[in-house]
Amino acid sequence: MPELPEVHAHAERLTTALAGAALDAFEPLSFTALKTYTPAPDAAVGRRMERVWRRGKHLLLEFPGEPPLTFVVHLMQGGRLRPDTSKSRKPKNGLARWRFDSGAALLLTEAGTEHRAGVWVVAGDPLVQPPLDHLGPEADAIDDCRMAELLAAHSMRLHTFLRDQRILAGIGRRLANEVCHRAKLSPFAATKKLDDVEAAAVVAAIRDTVDEGLSVEREHDEMTASADRPGAVHGRTGEPCRVCGDAIREIAYRDYTVNYCATCQTGGKVLADNTTSKFLK
Ligand SMILES: [Zn+2]
Question: How many Å lie between the centroid of ligand 1 and the Cα of residue 198?
């Protein structure tokens, strides 16, 4: 799933391509695409798109006016929002299309069968209403002190904490793996037990992984495929750790994998999850 760096760089890309263009039409192509009834998307027709912005893992297409209107797009796992050059009547995996007066168009597609990507149309401040109102602070904007408070306020595994959008917005499974490795902390570390030094290590690790992801992402014309995203542990089971040379290990769940280095992160202890690991009955 695209996470903070991928979505952020993509918002910049779409702003460069389309800022200032006026909306000619919004076309839902699938009955699952539009998640809101009011305001109608047509209320934005004729308005200029000021920019594409980001909140958490959502893209925000902003149309100023009275009231301001925002299309909030969540790509989820397989969704993509791209300039539509072919403008075919029934685009493959098409969910929705925005047509602009410049002749350009944006097409939202979703590969796979999950059908979880979607579009919300919001009037007024989009940050204080669904689907964005439940989001925690941006993960890369939290200081050491606030992080220590958040860790102490929750009783969960660090990896789960990092991925919880209500606590921190923007981090998913890939970045959670990378942040734990960079901070030299176990993905299973109990958040309540982390001290101030460890909280500061989490903050630094988030900033570094986001910066690394952003700089790679900005070199591409399109959102990268997951295999092209940078990292030391995610998806690297069996490869040598680039810090210590130990083999990267995995805990495999039904839907995803936690990767870590035992030497760097757990004092050599091999983790096993006896609650939900797919290998255990
Ligand atoms: Zn290591």
Answer: 17
Q: What is the 3-state secondary structure (H, E, C) of the chain?
A: CCCHHHHHHHHHHHHHHHCCCEEEEEEECCCCCECCCCCCHHHHCCCECCEEEEECCEEEEEECCCCCEEEEEECCCCEEEEECCCCCCCCCCEEEEEEECCCCEEEEEECCCCCCCEEEEEECCHHHCCCCCCCCCEHHHCCHHHHHHHHHHCCCEHHHHHHCCCCCECCCHHHHHHHHHHCCCCCCCEHHHCCHHHHHHHHHHHHHHHHHHHHHHCCCCCCCCHHHCCCCCCCCCCCECCCCCCECEEEECCCCEEEECHHHHCCCCCCCCCCCCCCCC
Per residue in 186-198, pLDDT tens?
999 999 999 999 9
Residues having C-beta closer than 5 Å to ion ligand 1: 241, 243-244, 246, 261, 263-264
pLDDT(142) > 80: yes
Q: Are 45 and 24 in contact (CB under 8 A)?
A: yes
Answer whether 0.70 is exceeded by the pTM: yes
pLDDT above 90 as % of the chain? 88
**215: which residues sit within 8 A by CB, 6+ positions away?**
none
| Cis upstream peptide for 240 (omega within 30°) | no
Amino acid 180: pLDDT? 98
pLDDT, average across residues 115-119? 91
> Residue 184 C-alpha to ligand 1 middle, in angstroms?
9
Distance, CA 244 to ligand 1 centroid (Å)? 4
Find the mean pLDDT for residues 62-85.
95
